[in-house]
Amino acid sequence: MKQQVSRGTFLVFVAATTTSLCCVAFLLFSLLSAGPGFYNGRECRMTYSQYQFLPLNVPNAHPGSNYRLLKFTDKRDPRHQHFYPISGGLIENYETQTNPNVKKGRPGRELKFEDNWCLLSREKLKANNSTYENWKGVPYPNRGHPVLYVHGHWGSFSQARSIGAHGTRWVGPYTKSKSDAQIYDSLQTGRDMHNGLLPHESSFVLSEDHFVEQVSKDHLAGFVMDVYSLDFNGEGAALHHSTLLRQADFFAKSIEALATGCDVSREGGITIVAHSIGAWVVRLALRMHPHLESNGLVRNVVTLASPHLVIPYAVDSSVHEMTSRLNRNEDNQDVA
Fold first, then answer.
1. SS3 content of the chain, % helix, strand, coil (to 5)
2. Tally of helices (H runs) and strands (E runs) in the chain
């Protein structure tokens, strides 16, 4: 009887050990191979970035506001490296997110229009008769399509880093058609990159129904997004309607700042990506400031996991009243 028990225990031990070794081997194979072991072409690709968020000046923002507009940059992207000494201690990155004391005592300022933080081309600066002399020395003036991320209730601006990494690294199919060296060379020189305009066309086509038929894979591979993000300082917009109003107002002023800095009125507008309650901020802002849409400043709005019907768990009745009124008064074509 004891021999049978011992033999059974031994077999269980062998089976468990074999299973564990197989799992370890499969894990190592997945990490060392070009893609996941069970990759089938439909998974989300992991994004890795050396993110540096640069704060931008928002004219006409409320003087006492602690909200911010930031631009995502990757430290390996040569287009933005000359901004880092200017932003200095105001740069937000992994170190400042994990250790707030890192920024203490380091000088820096918000980037202004005259810094050309949107990287407008020299030709466009000349055509607009702007302060070209101040900007002509800025290296790599090649901007992508502007995308603004709006986080949700108690969210963070740093959630935009994944979108930003995809936007600047041209992440498409798992097997990339270009190496990282080729990608960053294109970002630096402006060759084989574009912000959404088809060759020899003046209209923006990213949201057209016939986009897939018109745009070749090569043209799509060169599409670059420059991602911006709002920072509401961790404020929960779902708690009171006054918070929603403040955030919506700052959103509108940020759109106007992006429109001026990137000259988007002539080039297709800005794409908005809003998460959760951030979608209500966007919808409210577009209702309060209809010129954002009518003047072409906002082109597309994409919402992620957003409760469009009603904000759940709102503790203040004014939130329900506002959202109900907005739903009733909106046109059949919802802006969000």
1. 45, 15, 40
2. 13, 6
Question: What is the three-class DSSP state of 197?
Answer: strand
**Mean pLDDT for all residues in the chain:** 78
Contact 210, 204 (CB under 8 A): no
CA angle 127, 131, 132 (to 5 degrees): 60
- Number of neighbours of residue 86 by Cβ within 10 angstroms: 17
Integer Cα distance of 185 and 277 in angstroms? 38
Residue type, 298: V
Does position 177 have pLDDT exceeding 90, yes or no?
no
Q: What's the rounded Cα separation, in Å, for the pair 12 and 264?
A: 67
Which residue shows structure tokens 């709002």? Answer: 230
Q: Dihedrals φ, ψ of 102, to 5°?
A: -60, -35
> What sign does the CA torsion over 225, 272, 300, 207 have?
positive
* d(C-alpha 188, C-alpha 184), whole Å: 6
pTM summary value: 0.78
Contact 224, 80 (CB under 8 A): no
pLDDT in tens, 239-292: 888 999 999 999 999 999 999 999 886 557 899 999 999 999 999 999 999 999
N residues, the chain: 336
What backbone phi and psi angles, to 5 degrees, belong to 54?
-105, 125
Which amino acid would we find at residue 54?
L
Q: Is 165 left (phi over 0), alpha (psi -120 to 50) or beta?
A: alpha
Residue 42, pLDDT > 50, answer no
Q: Which residues pair with 231 in a beta bridge?
A: 68
E strand spans, 199-307: 225-231, 270-275, 298-304
Amino acid sitting at position 171: V
**Across-strand partners of 73?**
52
Q: Are 306 and 279 in contact (CB under 8 A)?
A: yes
